[in-house]
Specification:
alpha+beta; Ubiquitin-like (UB roll); Cytidine Deaminase, domain 2; four-stranded mixed β-sheet; 9 helices; 14 strands
Amino acid sequence: MSREEKGVTRRTVWRYSEGEAAAPEEDSVAVEEPLEIRVSGDTVAITMRTPGQDRELAVGFLFSEGLIRSVDDLGGVAYCGRPGEEGWGNVIEVTPAAGLVLEVERVSAARRGTLTTAACGVCGRRSVDDLMAVCSSVPPGPVLAPGVLVRATEQLRDVQRNFERTGGVHAAAALDASGGLITSAEDVGRHNAVDKVVGALVLGGAARSSRASVSSVTPRSERTPTVLVVSGRASFEIIQKAAVARIPVVASVSAASSLAIDLAERSGVTLATFVRGGRFNIYTHPARLGAV
């Protein structure tokens, strides 16, 4: 089953237009189901997501929360139970590398046992300082051609296959400095879409936190993730996830919040918004785009 097939289902719809309803027909809608993320048997979060790239989602979530620093911290990531059992595919277990203990209590306490919804990025957190504690400053550079951003959201639209069928999912993608697509994801939650992208980078050895030790693991791709492009607005949590993954540029189709701009400035991330139609606005660190 392809990623698109897992993320789309059919439901009956009555279309109303010009004062009357048409005959019922089948319509494509985005799938939303819970995913329970466990670490060594302990539940860390339950998120409402679109099935597909669940391993990446779990890894990206734990990485963004600061529980893991690189692929070296992972021993295994697998679904719990057996295929065919009720609920199979909606609980995923992350096992840390041998000899490593992940501090799940810190995340559980910070979230106060709340449900992590598809739209939720920091719900249940005790304070903004908790989030900033896992963000380090992204080093300066590289300088990108403005055309890389101009084309970024166009490339994102090209990979939004589920959106084309349902109109009900967000998307995120990581690009290299020349604008080449590294990985992409769709989900009913924009934060989940970003976690799936970050998780794919972590699993491929292309994303490591500033706290990670030097690794002998060879990245599967020599291309460095340079731009995180998102289909929705740029919120604080999106910038946080980019900063932890040390992605220097965030490009958003929509607007940015004040706190997102403040965090981008503090963490060294270049933030561009309303990237569409050949135009964009730059709020922070414009030198990366040649605008000083």
